[in-house]
Write a structure and sequence with these properties.
Elements lengths: L1 H4 L1 E2 L6 H6 L5 H15 L43 H6 L10 H21 L18 H33 L6 H20 L6 H24 L1 H27 L5 H4 L4 H7 L8 H24 L13 E2 L27
Antiparallel strand pairs: 1-2
Helix pairs in contact: 5-9, 6-7, 6-8, 6-9, 8-9, 9-12
The chain binds fe (ii) ion (2 copies).
The site of one fe (ii) ion (FE2) has 7 residues, from helix 6, helix 7 and helix 12.
Length: 349
Amino acid sequence: MIKSQITVKLLLANSKPLLLRPLISGPASAAFHTGRALGYQKEVHEKWSKTLLETKPADDDGSLNAKIDDSRFVVSWDHPSATLQQLHQVSVAHHQPKTFSDRIANKVLLLIRSSFDLITGYHHPPKGKEDDPRYQMSERKWLERFVFLESIAGVPGMVGGMVRHLHSLRLMRRDKAWIETLLEEAYNERMHLLIFMKLSKPGVFMRLMLLGAQGVFFNLFFVSYLLFPRICHRFVGYLEEEAIVTYTRCIEDIEAGRLSDWKTRKAPQIAIDYYHLPTENQTMLDLVYYVRADEAKHREVNHTFGNLDQKFDRNPYALKVIDDKGTPQPSTDLSAPKPTGWERREIAA
Ligand SMILES: [Fe+2]
Ligand SMILES: [Fe+2]
């Protein structure tokens, strides 16, 4: 029924300029190509005084103390905008496992989460015990948790995108635009990491943990994605559910005054640029709301991908659908949220 009501317009990003390219010549062509070049090779800075040869790696090692000019940060993937109301409406949700593979994905995730909690000394407070000192989280503890979480969360999108990219090349098959969304997710998670790295400098123990965790997780996820991509997306959906629990608790801590400084402290410049934070909403609290909303989108996208046919279904987040009747459809922003994912029967073909 949806099929007959909806005009589907499948447009891959940038397809129009590429099609128009041979038709444009002369001055228009020069302007067109300059436009393309500016779009890809972004302006980093206007004034420069030294060449790359004269720079020292120590000036910009990506660490907390690096001498980085934040005004030179360039956003590669523009972040979709969101209203305050949409950000505040994000909430904890759980996709009820329906199949045997859902239950496996859920159990594996819970096992990983409890091991992670044990290693990092995190105890989730039972209701009413949020103020109990045994469960209190300091700023340092929150940041350590975020850094660890984000460095792991950036792996699945990259692996999924890479595997699908290789499938497309090797099997000479269209990908139906899943790769773009998966790589964008990986970029978004890495942006979370870069933002929190501005506030926390991981010690040797944390760095070793990350090294080990990435080595193990990347390889396991890679093999699993080759064999069972659908279960992997469900697993990531459950992982994102836990990320939302974490950020929701952090928001509650800030608002209850247990991390009061974050109510007023300005977010790092890199976050302001990435999210285009409005002047009146640039605090750490605002930032955590934005990050949580990103995790909610990852939760939705991965649960949706976990419902789709991995080979034949289009990615509803990358291919635009124009709906004459206004039937809600998946979107990259927060305008049509579906925390536990969209079912195949709800998505226009
Ligand atoms: Fe994240
Ligand atoms: Fe995420």
